[in-house]
Amino acid sequence: MKTRIREISLVYVALAGLMAAGCISDAGGDPEGSGDGPAAADAPSIDRSGADNGLPLVGGSDGIDSAASSSGGDAAYPCDGNASGYNAVVTRSGSSWVAKNGSRNVYSGGDMRAAMQAALDSLSRGRTRKESVLVQGSGTMAASSRLSVPSYTVLNVCGTIDVTGGGSGDMAPIYARGRTDIEIPNVTITGTPRYAMFFRDVENLRLGHVELRVSNGLGIRIDNHGRSDRADKVTNIDIDHVYAEGTGSHGVETYGVDGLRIGTVIARDTGECGLLLNDTINAEIGTVDAVNAGTGTGYAAFRLANRAGRIGSSYPTNIHVGQVIARGGGRGIFCVSESGGATIDRIDVAGTGSNSILLENCHNVNIAAESGTVTGGGDIRLAARTQFANSSDITIQNLTVANTAVNESPCAVNSTFRNLTLVNARDNTCD
Q1: Beta strand pairing call for 203-214 and 331-335
Q2: pTM over 0.85
Q3: Dihedral, CA atoms, 378, 381, 386, 387, nearest 10 degrees?
Q4: 3-state secondary structure 340-387
Q5: Bridge pairing between strands 180-191 and 88-93
Q6: How many Å apart are CA 157 and CA 89, to the nearest integer?
Q7: Could you tell me if 323 and 345 are in contact, meaning their C-beta atoms sit under 8 angstroms apart?
Q8: Lowest model confidence (mean pLDDT) among 33-37, 250-254, 380-384
Q9: Which of 86, 145, 352, 386 is the most buried (most CB within 10 A)?
Q10: Which of 219, 216, 276 has the alpha carbon at shortest distance from 242?
Q11: b/e per residue, 74-90, with b = 16+ CB within 10 A?
Q12: What is the largest CA-CA distance in the chain?
């Protein structure tokens, strides 16, 4: 049984007039022939070494803020030069680093990573309350090394970690595995990391203000893949603000998380997704703002995959996104491989190389619960692969769609199209 609600307004306006008024994009593309694009990459992602995506930021005229951040950093742990209250402090003087815990000198030398690790290792053993380390200064770290953060630790990096050379495996300048209760209030990472930040089987993780301006690797990866039972998800992950530029892979990726809060992800010229949620449930996302995320690929500014939003065998609404902004890149929004249970309040998608929105074998997804626009680029598409159950309970509403199409094939179960205004666009949904 299919329940069809179709409230679509067809508006035919001269294309030249609209373009002159700045209302729609001049991006081409034939929605009829756009296809699925690259299929899935649903397995855990790795970076593609050697990718150089250091393109200039795009912003201003298209209404997207091109600044790295509107925030001055973490309010609880500011980078204001004040070292009081920290258990250990790492400072740079000339080419030398010094790490102290109180009056005790725990490192002196030229290696930034060794100084930070010595400070972390100097904290109380077996502690069950957080102790803190402040890093003051910028330096380099080899991509083949990593800084291991222990449990019950605040690590505030008031400087830049510039990653050099190449690495393999799960190397990252900020790394933790099998830990709990970690905070990284501030950090900036540049260079060529394999992963900029890698957290496996870490509970109660909080990331404050993260700046990633790299030319390789994956930005932030959080997963539960060290556990024998993948149904045992990591819990309580909190991220305030991420700016990710030039990653060879995703800006932020989660896999196997229950309980995720993200304020803002700004992605610029990432090789794959801006934000990717795999097998992740109970998530609250503020804003995903992406320019040229996944250009030339089937990835998207925002992607749900591998049963993201699925709880047991059903899809109660448990993933909420305030807004998704996408300019160029691969896709705008992509839901695939039995994911769903998601509501996105507002969207603004324009000029994507592949589908503006693709919902494939997804369930209980509400796009533009409040408002949105899709301009040029690829189509809005409901689809399904035969190896999974057909898409169901999809709502596309409150959208102005210009210079593209709304396509549905095969006909989904209980799909709703409500309050759509089509401007030089085609309605190819099922009757």
Answers
A1: unpaired
A2: yes
A3: 80
A4: EEEEEEEEEEECCCCCCEEEECCEEEEEEEEEEEEECCCCEEEECCCC
A5: unpaired
A6: 10
A7: yes
A8: 33-37
A9: 352
A10: 219
A11: beebebeeeeeebbbbb
A12: 76
